[in-house]
Design goal:
With about 110 residues, the protein is an alpha+beta fold. It has one domain (about 25-110): Immunoglobulin-like. It has one helix and nine strands, in the order αβββββββββ. It has one helix at about 5-20; strands at about 25-30, 35, 40-45, 50-55, 60-65, 70-75, 80-85, 90-95, 105-110. The strands form two sheets. The protein has a five-stranded mixed β-sheet with strand order 3-9-8-5-6, with no helix packed on it. A four-stranded mixed β-sheet has the order 2-1-4-7, with no helix packed on it.
Length: about 110
């Protein structure tokens, strides 16, 4: 394959991958002042999905789920995205490590 044609094929492959990623369901979680909005997030079972997490509070937060083996720290004003593999139907706990008494949530796969 010629170099120019190879570059075009690679670009098309990247565009196709991006299009597939855009089809992934995305759910929003806002962390603010030691609280989670919403506290319960319903997702389709057996489907990959993306969780967009926004820290709208004045201090740092940390999304953590021991069951799902996911965690990320967010400075004030930061938004992060986590991709989750398909989950069996059930309820999966998560929390804000910096506010464990007030920021408890769950992802429910149905």
């Amino acid at each position: 394959m010629k170099p120019a044609l190879h570059s075009v094929a690679f670009a098309l492959l990247l565009n196709a991958a991006a299009a597939c990623a855009d089809d992934m369901p995305t759910f929003l979680l806002v962390m603010k002042d030691g609280r989670l909005f919403p506290e319960t997030i319903e997702v389709p079972a057996m489907t990959r999905f993306r969780l967009e997490i926004r820290n709208e509070g004045p201090g740092a937060t940390e999304f953590e789920s021991l069951e799902l083996r996911k965690e990320t720290v967010l400075a004030p004003g930061v938004t992060r995205k986590l991709v989750f593999h398909p989950m069996k139907p059930g309820s999966y706990k998560f929390f804000d490590e910096f506010h464990p008494d007030t920021a408890q949530g769950r992802i429910v796969a149905k």
